[in-house]
Structure formats: C-alpha cells, structure tokens
Amino acid sequence: MAAPAFAQAVHGYAGLAISPKGDRLAAIEASGGEAHMAIVVRAVADGHVVRTIDPCAACSYSGLTFAPDGSLAFVSRDRGTQTTTLALADAAAVRTVATIPGIASTPRFSPDGKRIALLVTIGAAKEAGATQAGVRQIGEIGEHSDEQRLAVFERGAAPVAAPDVKPLSPADRYIYEYDWAPDGRSLIVTSALGNGDNNWWVATLDAVDAASGTVRQIARPATQINMPRVSPDGKTVAYIGGLMSDFGSIGGDVWTVSLAGGIPANRTQGAKATVTSLAWTTNGLRTTRLMADAAQVADVGETGASKVFWSRPASFAAGDGRVVYSADGRTIATVAQDYTHGPAIFAGPVAAPRQITHDNDALPARAVAKSVTWTNDGFSVQGWLLAPVDADPARKAPMITIVHGGPAAASAPAYVGDYGSASTLLKAGYYLFYPNPRGSYGQGEAFTAANRRDFGGGDLRDILAGIDAVEKVAPIDDARLGLTGGSYGGFMSMWANTQTNRFKAIVAGAGLSNWISYYGTNGIDQWMLPFFGKTMYEDPEAYRAVSAISFIARAKTPTFIYVGERDIEVPPTQSVEYWHALKDLGVPTSLVIYPDEGHGIRQPGNAADVLRRTVAWFDKYLAVQP
C-alpha cells in the first residue's frame, strides 16, 4: 500500500530515563522516517540536546539507565553480527563493559554506582517473551528452555569477553525483573523455576545474594506480580499485584511486604483505578495509574489513600515504568501522546511537567476522539470513539469495534498518524470504537476480576451496551457494524459470532476458538489458572462453556482470520479449527497463517498484507456508501 502524498513521519522516543538529580534525561530517538535510532541526552529544564550517543550505526539500543554520578549505561545490539554489548557512556567516552553471548536487557547500577547488574540469556534460542516467535517444535519437546539470569559486572574492571560472562543467579530460575537493595548486598527479583514464558503467572518475590547468587524467597503472592521496588531504608518491598493476563501488561494494586519476608499487604485495596507502574523515591511511593480515560501520576500515602499530582487523557511511556522519577521523586519525565497529538517528552515538577520536545507539533489530527462512558450490569464502563476528521454528522456511517487483548489490559490513546490500521480504516470512512469492558484496567481491581470464569459473558454485554451508547452520540449505522481484535480480542471476535448476529463482518487475529484444545497445545497454560480457578483437566466444563466451537452452529458472520505460524501464546491450530468449522457450515471465511511470526504480526510485509486484507474484508461486507 503506497504512502499517501500528505504522509508525515512521527519522531519516535523510546526507553526514556532520567538522572537521579533530575537535571538530564535520555531517550532513544529517531527523526521522522529514519529507521536507525540514536541515544539523545537532553536537559530537563528546556529539552535542549546535550549529547548524542551513537557508537554503532548498525545497532539498536535499549535499557538506558543513569548512574549516581550521571554516567549512562545501555545495551547495544547488532543483529547482523549477533553481538550484544553492555556499554557505558561517561563524560570521556563510550566503552564496552561486557559482551554478552546471547541477549540482554535492563541494566541497573548498584546504589554506590560501582557495579552494573544485567538480565542475560546465554545462547538464547528465541527473543525473550511469550509473544515472540517460538522455537520450532521438533525433537524432544520441553527438555530445554531459555534461562534469563542476573549477571553483575564491575564498572571499573576490564571489558568482560563473551566466554567469560558468568551469571550470578542459579540455572533453571528465570528472572523477570529486579531492583537493587539500598545496601547493594542483594537484588530483589520476581522469578520462577522452569520455562520462563509459561511460569510468570506463578512467579515469587525473592532476594538474590549479590555475592553468592543464593536465592531466598520473600513471599509467594496470590496475585501476579510486577515491578518490585525496595524502600530507601531497605526494610520493605513494594510491587504491583493483581489479576494480569500477560507479562508486561501491568495493572493492579500496590502491595508491600517486609524485605525479611512475610505476608504482603494491599496498600490500595478498593481504589477505583489501576496502578500501572511504580517507583519508590526518597519522598515516598510514586505510581502511575489509569482511572477511566485518564493516565495519572500519584503517590501512595501511609493510609493507602492516593494524592493525584498530574492527570491527562493520554498515554504515558518511559523505559522503567510509564513515568520516570528523580531520586527524590520531585521531578518526572514521560512520553505522552493521545489520539490527535503525536508523542512528546514532558518533564519537570511532579505536579506540573512541561512539554519540552516539539518534533511532532506539526503533525495533523487524523481523527476526532471522544471518551464515552456508559453503565451496564451495575458497572461504569468507558471506551473511546474515533470519527474520521471529515465525517458528516448528518450521514449514517459504518463502525468497527476493536476489542483489546488481555483480557487484563486497556485500550488507551495513541496518536493516529498516516500509517496503520486505525488511520487506514478512518480514511476509508469507518468510525472506530475501542471499549474497555469488565476485565479491563482503569476501574479498579474488582472490575478487572469481574470476568473471571465468565469470558465472553459480561464483557460482551458491556461491549454491546457500549455500541448502544455510541449510537446515541454518533451517526452509526447499526446495520453496518464490524468487529475485530487480536489475542483475547481475537477470542471475543470468534465468540461473538456465535452469540449475536449484530456484526456483519469480523476479523479475528490470533484468536482462541476452543479452550479445551487450546489448553493442551499452547505454550503458556499457566495464565489460565488465575482466570478459571482450575486446570482444564479438573474442570473441563468451565472451558467448554466459553468455547466458540461449542456454539459454532450459530455462527453466521463472514470472518477473516489470521495468525502467526510460530505463535506459542495462541497456536495457529486455534485459527485452523475455527476456519474449518466455518467452511463446513458455509459461512464466508478466509484464513492466512504468516510464516515465522509469533503472537503479533511484526514483519513489515506481513503487517501490510494483514491491513490490506482487513480493509478489503470490511469493505466487502460493510460497504461504505459513496
């Protein structure tokens, strides 16, 4: 698909970090249209560029982190030479600290700045994470898995060559995240034994001795856990705990527990907001949270009550959480964007950060965005409605409902540029509706947990009620409704086809059609236990009851299906099973399996093909009127 003549590329910012003093920040940036990204250091006061760091024109960068003295560590990766490097940029030069024989992420300085910890996967067979393309299932299955372990390097020592990299943490224990204890004697981690892709849902909170690597369990939380952070006095660990469906899709309450070990306590129980990132500064706990349509910066007081410093109907992003903080928590930085404004760095006082970059100020609005709220089954539900900028309010138009993955996640604002599915569908004349039904983040933990053992029940009713609410405020043609989504959104797309005839065209990406067969064929079966309560073998009826295949004879809506060949989260057999059933029933359908793709279609050519087929499918059955 050719780029339109008016296309304007977006200046990208990634991996945002802030110095402990709060005077400088660093981000991985690319000017509009450029593929290669460099590290740019800026002054917090006004955003002016202090330094550009780009020692390898063929490399990608990640893991920006400042030392107490203001030096900057980062990971450099050259996929062409299969080289991963831990590098340090001080005032004098950029030098190599260690060369990793595999992949690496998340460098962090010890409190005294003399050591750098790093997550390393020696001899990695795949990219880290369950959403990445899995290894081919050949040979003896399940006998070896990648191990992400902690390694610690002396900052002032000679560079460590690849053969000499010795992980600190023990083998067969996958380390997901970590934080240094203030005395530098231990590192607090979330970890699990065995397969790292599958076992995050049962991860424990542990301490790793910084000298011996010995592991001591601090707590075995009843929830999924993310972002362990140690208090400045070294006595307490805080983390985000909640019902979460994917590592990295963070949301829940703030929990604390003694570093010595004990029973965790919920510090924000009952809050009508979802905590999405966490930092422990010398002036207390700082969080970002999602409350309905607003991203917020807040603290957590001694009584658990939160004071909101800054709130904005936008999305926040940074390298270490959604917002990064100076050591004292008084200065923050984040990359903010919404549906009509491109990404920009905001930095400054915690209650009044200012926009300090303006590379994307000239980007035009390609949509008209509106937050919509409705009630259903006693819940308050929120979603986003996007209209084409040239939409005629007096003329009925088709609408496509886009269901997010998860289900523990949320659709949040992201700039609609000249490329991508949202832009293309809007240009084609479609309204877009992004609901956040029960099971989503943004309304508190009880709302997130409300679809436990009820997949496709209350959340589908919320979505249908949301469409009703949208039709009261926008000129939507109820006879031309489409539905799409990926992962859990793909399940909802397949499921809805068996529950309602309201949609006239469906596109299902990496969807789940049969929870019974899915349980025994996916690579992350542990994720279902928090949602179903028991394994499929112990309670098959609970899985059968929410399977689209169980009701497939009711399906009437034409459905385009796509999936990655090496998807371990939702194997392509789920799509094949659904496609086969629709074919047998005479329902118009098409299935494309993309080679070498994982959970998400990443290769540019494949992504363009998905978009082309998606638009053509909706155009065929929803027929935007000239």
Write up what this structure looks like.
- There is one protein chain.
- With 626 residues, the chain is mostly beta strands.
- The chain is 14% helix and 37% strand.
- The chain is built from 10 helices and 36 strands.
- The strands form 8 sheets. The chain has an 8-stranded mixed β-sheet with strand order 29-30-32-31-33-34-35-36, sandwiched between helices.
Q: Total strand count, please?
A: 36
Low-confidence stretches: 1-6
Q: Radius of gyration, rounded?
A: 24 Å
Specify the number of helices. Answer: 10
In what range is the share of β-strand residues?
35-45%
Descriptors for this entry?
single chain, 626 residues, mainly beta, 8-stranded mixed sheet, 10 helices, 14% helix, disordered N terminus
Could you give a short description of this structure?
The protein is mainly β. Helices cover 14% and strands 37% of the residues.
Question: Could you outline the blueprint of secondary structure elements for this entry?
Answer:
Blueprint: E1 12-18, E2 24-30, E3 38-43, E4 49-53, E5 60-66, E6 72-78, E7 83-89, E8 94-100, E9 102-109, E10 115-122, E11 148-154, E12 173-180, E13 186-193, H1 196-199, E14 204-209, E15 215-219, E16 224-230, E17 236-242, E18 253-258, E19 265-266, E20 274-281, E21 284-291, E22 294-300, E23 308-312, E24 315-317, E25 324-325, E26 331-337, E27 344-349, E28 354-355, E29 367-376, E30 379-388, E31 397-403, H2 421-427, E32 431-436, H3 445-448, H4 458-473, E33 476-486, H5 488-496, E34 505-509, H6 515-521, H7 529-532, H8 540-544, E35 559-564, H9 573-585, E36 589-594, H10 604-622
Parallel strand pairs: 31-32, 31-33, 33-34, 34-35, 35-36
Antiparallel strand pairs: 1-2, 2-3, 3-4, 5-6, 6-7, 7-8, 9-10, 10-11, 12-13, 13-14, 14-15, 16-17, 17-18, 18-19, 20-21, 21-22, 22-23, 24-26, 25-26, 26-27, 27-28, 29-30, 30-32
